[in-house]
Amino acid sequence: MVIPYKAIDWKNEKLVLLDQTLLPVQEAYNTYDTVLPLIDAIQRLVVRGAPALGVTGAYGVVIAMDQALREHWSSAQLEKAIDDIRDARPTAVNLAWAVEKIRTRISEGRDAVLAIAHQFAEEDRQSSTGMGNIGADWLINALGKKPLTLLTHCNTGSLATTGTGTALGVIREMHTRGLVKEVYADESRPLLQGARLTAWELMKSGIPHRIQPDGAAAMAIMTGRIDAALIGADRIAHNGDSANKIGSLGVALACHEAGIPFLVVAPESSVDRTISSGKDIHIEIRGDEELTFFKGIQVAPIGTKTFNPAFDVTPAKYISAVITELKAYEIGKGETL
């Protein structure tokens, strides 16, 4: 499937990012050649999604090296800038993984590091294709070769990767095979990645869909409207516990109760085998303003306290399988990663 837009690109020695904070109203691209604006873009979710953050981090090291040369930074200043890129969003393992992997190659020179960043982007594109095929095959084996109604949470498509996507990549592959009846996309509060981004991608791909409030997901599942749910992951522990956009756990619990598949789709780079379980995953807590204001408009009393975790962790026991570009890990049958 040809994707008519790119979340991430490298042009004229600069990083180009599709500004996802403006979608679906405006399709605008920003360029970056210095570190601080790039970190701001990562933190404001101009670019988001674990695989996309990994590729962005790799290119970010190149940007830091270029800026260091222009501004005559010391080696300590360069290392600090790279650390700041790595730590811009703590839950998504891909960002730190890519930055740490590529920084070990700095001694080979800037052009070598850029070539590795390009390689990361290409590997991510290929990974999307692998996940799409493996996930589609899994669904057909589990549910039969028939059109399915699928539910997804947050955004896991080309906006979150450099390819067709993780969970949305599976949905796209199912659609290519003529096996998607309809997609229910959770709106994904409070930043509405599902309503703003996933619906935009589904519409551009011609896939039948509807959006629903996050609070309607359990009802849709429990009343038999949904055949399977697919989500992405920002970090997966060795035992299969998976961190994803807040609200994913509620979807998993409803699927478990209804007895339908709940799939986590993510690249191998999202698997953190250094941690044994989800208890070791650091959850990013975001600011009050995301809940008390919307697009600059006050929607809650000033001074109201909030609980605004960006992610939750779904225990492995509620996950049917974890789909990567290498295989389907049968977590529901006790397999670990």
Automatic annotation (TrEMBL):
InterPro entries linked to this entry: IF-2B-related (IPR000649), IF-M1Pi (IPR005251), IF_2B-like_C (IPR042529), Initiation_fac_2B_a/b/d (IPR011559), M1Pi_N (IPR027363), NagB/RpiA_transferase-like (IPR037171)
GO molecular function (one): S-methyl-5-thioribose-1-phosphate isomerase activity
Gene Ontology BP terms: L-methionine salvage from methylthioadenosine
Pfam families linked to this entry: IF-2B
Keywords recorded for this protein, A-Z: Isomerase
UniProt-listed SUPFAM superfamilies: NagB/RpiA/CoA transferase-like
Keyword Zinc: no
Protein name from the UniProt record: Unannotated protein
Biological source species: freshwater metagenome
Taxonomy of the source species: unclassified sequences, metagenomes, ecological metagenomes
